Amino acid sequence: MAPTGHNRQPWRFVVVENQDVKRKLLEITLPLDQEMLKRLKTTDPQLYASIRQSAQYTPKDPIYFSAPVILFVIGTGGGTESIDCSLVCQNIMLAAHSLGIGSCMVGAGRRGLTDDPEIVKALELTEEETIYPPIVLGYRQSSPKPPPKKKPKIKWI
Length: 157
What we know:
There is one protein chain. This protein is 39% helix and 15% strand. The protein is α+β, with helices and mostly antiparallel strands and 157 residues long. It has one domain (5-138): 3-Layer(aba) Sandwich (NADH Oxidase). Strands 1, 2, 3, 4 and 5 form a five-stranded antiparallel sheet that branches. It is globular, with a radius of gyration of 17 Å. It starts with 10 loop residues before the first strand and ends in a 19-residue tail after the last strand.
């Protein structure tokens, strides 16, 4: 039900529940994420600390959080695709929340996937398509407090 420019609906979805595929996804993304974290430790210590704190709860899988479902939103065409796919991701997460299902959009969860032929085949990716950060879905073990939000910058004209 997400809005989309000219009703193009430039997306498709791949739902991953298979443990072998999830293991393969982690094998690809985890080393790349660890490289990024090493760089962040010196370039942005505050962000590094925040990421490390959130990852401490799932040491085996700090990327996909051992979620039962990894949902890929795959953009299928130009135009307003990036906005449209972002909106559909948010709608999915809001719908999940309304059903008591936890969700998290994981930017690191798409790193390196297009370089692996096995994953490209499993996701049936074409060269024209874009993988958006996957959404992990599952029932929460706890409900942490949301992080503080910055005061928005608003200019009235």
